[in-house]
Design goal:
By secondary structure, the chain is an all-alpha fold. The N terminus and C terminus are likely disordered.
Length: about 400
């Protein structure tokens, strides 16, 4: 029986260094959740613009493409402990700056983009370190637990954050988020000192070279596109929750996080390994389909159920990440996972901007259905293209293709 199917979540916490990495990431997620909702609400109140509200919440992702292009080689070439702590401290400062009274919206958006640029290296450092702590065999179980934590904290963060934004103020919530980022920095310092995974200094040239190497293998290329585009378009739907239902946006975010939690638990712990590769495409289809109904403006309880069911489909990313790790050399694991993370977040930012633009000229409900249709179309296109190259693999490469990568 494979290692990943035997390893329990309790075993993960008995693994040295897993707990501080997990807790530091949890504090970051909590801070990101509270600050995103607070900033989105603050901008929407100031502008009444679905576009600007969506960009303020998901704008940091737009800067990820710059980081992936110029700085991503740092993910394997910097010491993980110092890098993760430094990133969290940078988030502390920038989030506190967003809370300054009288700060114009354009300045808020500029700070948001700076935050995204700083964050562009973080995913690669964190997930590359996870493969070192747990090994490739333990990555799926570990990443599943991280995703579940992310979902739980989003449920709590959006629910509590919605109350705090209403009772206190968005600016006070931003200061609370800054404090959480500072806590994350302290937790990251509990990690052991480790040398970089790859020798050499970070550089633009090294980033371009490794990006080209990773992109050159067709199985990885299909995996990256499947990881980036379909779920990014659905995140565009999520970016419109505030303008779709300003009073109950926190409820919708919490329900989406609950669905994502259920999907990660099912894929990461409950499904046998032999079934996982077959579910990539069905899960991507599930991710988008329920949003097609929202143009009818169903009542809140039904909308909440549809959002939760759709988010179960985010479990597809675990299936695809497992394959990505399998077809990537160990010394490039941080860069490969960082490229996945940066590309995914960039697509989410692009989709949020696109969704906000469509909503600006139509309505948030109509824009959600448009984005969902686009996600389904991309999933179908990628499936047909990848099956031409790997007839039995769909969005996942065959074993032969994996060996050739």
């Amino acid at each position: 029986m494979p290692e990943t199917s035997r390893r329990s979540y309790a075993d993960l916490f008995r693994t040295p260094e897993f707990s501080p990495l997990f807790l530091s990431s949890a504090a970051n997620v909590a801070a990101q959740t509270v600050s995103g909702l607070a900033l989105g609400t603050l901008v929407f109140r100031a502008t009444n613009s679905p576009l600007l509200s969506a960009v303020s919440m998901f704008g940091p992702a737009l800067a990820q493409v710059l980081g992936a292009t110029f700085f991503l080689s740092a993910a394997d070439r910097l010491p993980p402990r110092a890098t993760l702590a430094g990133l969290s401290l940078a988030f502390t400062v920038t989030t506190a700056a967003l809370a300054l009274p009288g700060l114009p919206v354009w300045a808020m958006l500029a700070i948001v983009l700076v935050k995204g640029l700083i964050a562009s290296v973080g995913g690669g450092v964190r997930w590359g370190l996870l493969t070192e702590i747990l090994s490739k065999d333990g990555y799926l179980a570990g990443r599943s637990l991280f995703n579940m934590m992310h979902g739980l904290l989003q449920i709590v963060g959006y629910a509590v954050g919605g109350v705090l934004v209403a009772v206190l103020s968005p600016r006070l919530c931003l200061l609370l988020a800054a404090g959480l980022y500072a806590t994350a920095a302290g937790l990251a310092l509990r990690l052991s000192r480790r040398p970089p995974r790859t020798a050499g200094r970070p550089s633009v040239r090294a980033t371009w070279h490794t990006n080209s190497l990773l992109w050159s293998a067709r199985p990885r290329r299909h995996l990256y596109l499947a990881l980036w585009i379909p779920n990014g378009l659905v995140v565009g739907c999520e970016s419109l929750y505030v303008s779709y239902d300003p009073r109950d946006a926190g409820t919708l975010f919490a329900c989406a996080a609950l669905g994502m939690l259920a999907g990660d638990l099912t894929v990461g712990r409950l499904l046998p390994a032999r079934l996982r590769p077959r579910l990539g495409v069905p899960l991507l289809a599930l991710l988008a389909t329920p949003y097609l109904v929202l143009f009818l403006r169903p009542p809140l309880p039904l909308t909440a159920v549809l959002v939760a069911v759709a988010s179960v489909g985010f479990g597809a990313t675990l299936v695809q990440q497992e394959r990505l790790i399998a077809v990537t050399p160990d010394e490039l694991s941080g860069h490969a996972l960082g490229l996945h993370s940066s590309g995914m977040l960039t697509m989410q930012g692009v989709a949020a901007t696109l969704a906000g633009t469509v909503a600006q000229f139509t309505s948030p409900a109509t824009a959600m259905s448009v984005m969902a249709l686009a996600s389904l179309a991309v999933t179908l296109t990628l499936t047909l293209a990848s099956r031409r190259d790997a007839p039995d693999g769909g969005l996942l490469p065959t074993r032969a293709a994996a060996r050739s990568a």
